[in-house]
Design a protein that fits this description.
Elements: H1 3-15, E1 37-40, E2 48-53, E3 59-64, E4 69-74, E5 80-85, E6 92-98, E7 101-106, E8 111-115, E9 123-127, E10 137-143, E11 148-153, E12 168-175, E13 180-181, E14 187-190, H2 191-199, H3 207-213, E15 225-230, E16 237-241, E17 246-250, E18 256-261, E19 270-275, E20 281-285, E21 293-297
Antiparallel strand pairs: 1-21, 2-3, 3-4, 4-5, 6-7, 7-8, 8-9, 10-11, 11-12, 12-13, 12-14, 15-16, 16-17, 17-18, 19-20, 20-21
Length: 301
Amino acid sequence: MPKSLLILFFSYFLSAPNPKKIEVHPSFPYQLNAPNAIFEMPESLKEISGLSLCSDSLHLAAINDEEGIVFLFDKTNGEVTKEVKFWDDGDYEGLEVVGNDIYVVKSNGTIYQVKNYAADKPETHKIKSFLCKENDVEGLAFNPENNRLLIGCKGKIAEGEDADSATKKAIYEFDLDGMAMLNKPCYLLTLPSIQNYLKHQDKHDHLDKFLKTFAEGEKELKFSPSGIAIHPVTKNIYVTSSKGKMLLVLDQKGKILHLEKLKKKIHRQPEGICFDTDGTLYIANEGKDDKALVYKFLYQN
């Protein structure tokens, strides 16, 4: 291009009115309806309800919601290599590996600290909290940013003016430094916040379906936390909901970043979720009338 034309082109570009700013949203980095690997779980994990990466980064830890046993399995083939008995039978809904310890949470909010889980005879400490059966605890995750556990409830909020609200779900924190549950929720998932998010998602793949699920005038939030995990790279918080087959992504301040619809034929009952150190995602689905499945999804960053 001649120099004179080049100067004319840039002069026009710089003097032209600024185009309307377009906000670009990065694509979701997982193909949740196309797993990269599928692991069939044994009959003992048919009711799988929690999932976490082990401290050796070679195994995943899982529980079922009936027995006080942690199952360790190879993350490359799904083969169970060890069982750790930590307590009597019960409704266990989430677990998280933190260093040499495993934390397990019951649906009534009781937490079990399994110290030195890799030892021949691990020691277990039972910790009561103010949460109870009505709160229906389901998810457990570790936040290394503040050394706290995140505890998701699919039931009622524990107390306060929101306690009887069916349009809100709470996520609480358990402080590992003080070994105590903090009184107020650290995050509230609310119907208005999801509605507000959807108003700005004109190109969302499942927008019409979500607008019906979270419509104005609804008296119930049709999203109930069933699993929680924190992304090791972005630090965003991933929350699954078996009810409605969905996954919600929050930032550390609780802002909704993404809402994903899970295909029912694949995610029959998403209960457990965790990440590998490189961002690889694992989601565990209960077996129902078949074997439980753990799906592996590569991080497409």
